């Protein structure tokens, strides 16, 4: 058969690197079957276009499509802005709790009774004076 007329499929690996190699109808691929395990083994470019020998086709399932060179960008579901906002909310709540607790502890027995602005007044005793002398 001539190049391009051999149907795609698994054929005996002409390089001997595996039991079978996949021919895509135009050239050999890197897909090699080694005892039922599929591996990628590069082929010499000078041999890539040489068609399979007639009668060497093997009954193996078609290879999985070759992976494309895609860059996978992993994104986080949380953005940095969400983390900052969350941190600010937590900080505000903590400040509120601290203020609430400290304002509750200021009302001790030492503070004046509500409605009075100063502590109870005590009158100092008047100094003892002698009666004025007549004279």
Task: Explain what this protein looks like in three dimensions.
The chain is an alpha+beta fold. It has a domain at 9-58. 19% of the residues lie in helices and 16% in strands. It contains one helix and five strands; from the N terminus they run βββββα. The protein has a five-stranded antiparallel sheet, with no helix packed on it. The longest helix has 26 residues, at 80-105. The chain is rod-shaped. The mean pLDDT is 78.
Q: What fraction of residues sit in β-strands?
A: 15-25%
Give a count of the beta strands, DSSP E runs of length 2 or more: 5
**What's the helix-strand series?**
EEEEEH
Low-confidence sequence ranges: none
Mean pLDDT: 78
List key phrases describing it.
135 residues; 5-stranded antiparallel beta sheet; 1 helix; alpha+beta
Tell me briefly what this model is.
This protein is an alpha+beta fold and 135 residues long. The protein has one helix spanning 80-105; strands spanning 9-12, 20-23, 28-34, 37-40, 57-58. The chain is rod-shaped.
């Amino acid at each position: 058969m001539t190049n391009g007329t051999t149907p795609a499929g698994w054929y005996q690996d002409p390089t001997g690197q595996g039991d079978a190699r996949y021919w895509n109808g135009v050239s050999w691929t890197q897909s090699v079957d080694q005892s039922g395990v599929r591996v990628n083994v590069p082929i010499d470019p000078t041999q890539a276009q040489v068609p399979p020998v007639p009668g060497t086709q093997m009954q193996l399932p078609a290879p999985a499509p070759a992976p494309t060179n895609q860059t996978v960008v992993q994104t986080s579901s949380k953005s940095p802005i969400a983390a900052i906002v969350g941190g600010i909310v937590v900080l505000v709540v903590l400040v509120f709790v601290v203020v609430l607790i400290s304002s509750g502890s200021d009302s001790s027995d030492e503070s004046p009774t509500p409605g009075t602005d100063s502590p109870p007044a005590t009158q100092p005793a008047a100094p003892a004076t002698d009666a004025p002398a007549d004279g």
